[in-house]
Amino acid sequence: MADASSSSHGDLILTRLTKTFGDFTAVDDLSLTIPQGSFFALLGPSGCGKTTTLRMIAGLEEPTVGSIFIGETDITTKKPYQRPVNTVFQNYALFPHLSIFENVAFGLRRRGVKDVKEQVEKVLALVELPHFADRKPTQLSGGQQQRIALARAIVNRPALLLLDEPLGALDLKLRRQMQIELKWIQTEVGLTFVHVTHDQEEAMTMADTIAVMNEGKIEQMGSPADLYESPATAFVANFLGQSNLIRGVVSSTDGDSNVITVHGQKISLLKSRNQSQTTSVVVGIRPEKIRIDLPDVPTTGNALAGGIVSDVSFVGVSTQYVVEMPWKQDLMVFEQNDGGTPTLRSGDPVSLSWNVPFTFGLDGSQDVNAGAETDEIE
Amino acid sequence: MAYLQSMATRASTFSGKKGRLPYLLLAPGLFWLFTFFVLPIINLAGTSTQTPVVGGDTGQYVQTFRFANYVDAFNASREQFARSFIYATLATLLALAIAYPLAYAIAFRSGKYKNLLLVLVIAPFFTSFLLRTVAWKQILGESGFVVPALRALHIIGANATLTASALAVVTGMTYNFLPFMTLPLYASLERIDPRTLEASNDLYANAFTTFRKVTFPLSMPGVVAGTLLTFIPAAGDYVNAAILGNPNTTMLGNVIDSRFFRIVDYPTAAALSFMLMASILVLVTLYIRKSGTDELV
User: Which CATH class is domain B69-291?
Assistant: First the structure.
């Protein structure tokens, strides 16, 4: 325990980690390496197994199968108090009977650290609450309690800091502010952060690497930009932001592109962006990449004709259109309010177009609605 | 303007009604307390300083404001005073030792049996206090299973008995007041957020340290409530001593009982009652001050 801050540093390596509760498999054969010093996010809807994964890393849940290593050290069977891992709990779990100072000093005292006072004061300064040492947790606001929970964990300089939906209880504005601060603190202290969240925007703002989880498995892992621009599955495409997914068939090949027939119209998809192994393909395009025009305006790149505007919502920076296509599918289009396009009204006939490289192709056997709007439920 | 005025009057009558409502709600309780607590207490206080009517019958007393009654009463029952507090303290500590693990198990480990176990804790209340104490006498008596078992194991001598002893009185009180200890302990343990215990575990505290530094301090409101609910009735109890004790284990309650109903010495009984009340009040106040749980409740 005393060497928590020195010897066991290294990458976090999860190997074939599985957790079952009765018949239910919460985490299913998950293997993952999280490099030391990174800000890693486990992102997924509730019940996807992300919190169970986190609890297994913390030692609060025992894996059914698999192993957990930090660097060279196997911590799979170690008790929570024997691991160089600290957690920032959802709703903070501060000790209500102890002062803020004693809350933060708790881990240091258990490990018999000498300069408790100095370290606590330092970390309270880091989270910008230096004058709160004598108060009780109930006397603090939600945002302040959140910072104390963070201070209580990072003061121990763990090899790994786990954050379980740490900002879930804060209001939107405070959440945005704390996201930036958390990122800054992570850079400042240089610890590995593993952050569990169902908020895709939060994960994208803070993490270097995001693993999107669904039904106990990792759907895709990568940088926020990679995941957003090149989703590998319909679930990721829908869960991370919004996507228009349209079923199509590869009808021919033209140089480095496939020509896809979607409901009788032809569009191009770069071969390098087509993940389907068969001719059945789901074509994806992000709503903000699409240009919306009246039917007689000439278009470049890919184009789909025959749309009718069925809903218009003005959201300040952009206008969001719902366009009903001839095959009765609604597509989303976000248009910047930069004066470039005249505002369209419900019922206007339109055609949609976008640059070919923005098109991505997914395996055609998937449910095109997988992961859609699941992030709105909680 | 008229409209505004009518609004204002309506507002004021509304707030006036609202202001009286709490007192109306309190009235029945206050009436009850006044009739059956305050008046008797005043009456008792009066009785405590009376002296016998010279040449009168037994039970005839007259008010002479003789405060020396208190000194006499205390001197005559010092032993019982001491015993009341010693037995009550022992019973409270025993009950705490038994009830804490029980309440802990119900709160944290009982799963779906939680409600069943809670019903079992209060099940003894379905029979009378007296009956249970008599039953306890039988359990500890010659015909019970405890004495032969202890004899066979040579824990007690062949002629030793358990009834009619201080041990029987204290165990009887422990048994009778156990639910009063268990329920508040359960209530405060149950309120503890399991995540604070996980947080303690996460912050390098093993199970024992977590109990010492987090669980127990957080259960202090229950400990204080439970010990008070056990100690206060135990200190004034006389049923256990009467049924399970012997003449050398009498408590203050027994003295008050016999002074009131057998000897018909009302002033002494009243003075003893007052002294018992006062000493419990002082002890309880000191205890609550010392335990400093007001912040937690």
Answer: mainly alpha
